[in-house]
Sequence to fold (462 residues):
Amino acid sequence: MAESDEKRALINEGEDEDNDEEWNGCGPAVLCDPRRGPHRFIVLIFTCFLNFGSYFCYDNPAALQSEIQSDMGVTSSKYVLLYSLYSWPNVVLCFIGGILIDRKLGVRWGGIVFATFVLGGQVLFAMGALINSFWLMEVGRFVFGIGGESLCVAQNNYAVIWFKGKELNMVFGLQLSFARVGSTVNFNIMKPIYDAIAGVVSPGYKVLGLSLMVGVGMCGFSLLCAIVLAVLDSRAKKLTKRKTFSTEEKITLSDVKKFPLTIYMVFIICVSYYVSVFIFIGLGTIFFASKYHMPDKEANAVDGIVYILSAVFSPIFGLLIDKLGKNVFWVLAAVAITIGCHALLAFTFVNPWVPMVIMGMGYSMLACALWPIVAFALPEQQLGTAYGFMQAIQNLGLAVVAIAAGKILDEKGYLVLEVFFMAWLCLAFLSSVLLYIFDLARGELVAIGSCECVVDISERLT
Fold:
């Protein structure tokens, strides 16, 4: 039974006997046979590392915030453009990236192309610092953004192709964990690397550029993973005569008008919650260093702890929500917890490790509880549209709010910025309450959730 499950994703029934001849001379069969677990474990390793470089480089600006501002001579308003310019292309590409992979490029070429965009963007970003050109750094982040989110689509397509079935939940969890590990490694090594290079190189902008070249190496490694996956997947398709299947929903904007109010509440929660976490982390290093008089290394560690904890707690909370259901109450708890964390950071001098650790748990809780609600409320044929729209407005919110946050920080300081984030979280909390009320009014109780729906959602996402 277990062996049958392993083969189902790659082999059509009844073809085993016809293919026996093609496996002759395969070498160590367990390792090179795409039908066997050890070979698919090798594929899993490369799949998990496919986005490692992208996540490592996404928060390069946060890990070197003070260095970027001082070496490049830019204000906080200019600095946050490095995040906005990543988000802008993804307002549109969330809709079309999957379509390109599904209908034009294919998952193999799609993964290579988008990994190349990520690598090229990081090269421009690092070169901009190396020649003291901030506008080139901005161009680099824009190009980086073109590839970043679409590479996630390619990664999810590989997961569905190779691990469709009972293993898929585990694979999605591992991909998320590896992504957060990439972010964590960035926060912990970029500042020491900068300091080491600063001892032998000057001026500062050259030190910054050389430090960012480490990210180029990470993105190059991800491109190598994309090439290896393309080779392995092409070989598996030939050997198993695997049929090509689509993992993308047809996206039609007209479906958006038909969504129930519960879905619009989910969209609002998504935007208002994530801007208060992602943008805060992007601006957090200097906050911790200045308010709590921390050395830069510790400030980076505190700032990145949310991502470390999400890698650990996401599978745990996913299992709990899977067993207990009641997604909307988990969302309410996550938002309330995060409001409390921002209040502690804004109005007290409590050791910042405490609120940031709690924030990491709240972030993990919301990520596991919020996204499946869409699947409870909509028919399967509308899920592609709903998730595409949800990701698009999330990126739009991140782009716009990042600009506003930078201006607030420059003109008013961190206290007003924290109040700004708390206002967004209050909107998320109000929307969570309305989500529950609207759902009760419809009499469907989709926001409460069920174990079956939570288990099924990972098989619907790409």
Observations:
- The chain is about 80% helix and 0% strand.
- The radius of gyration is 22 Å.
- The first helix runs from residue 2 to 8.
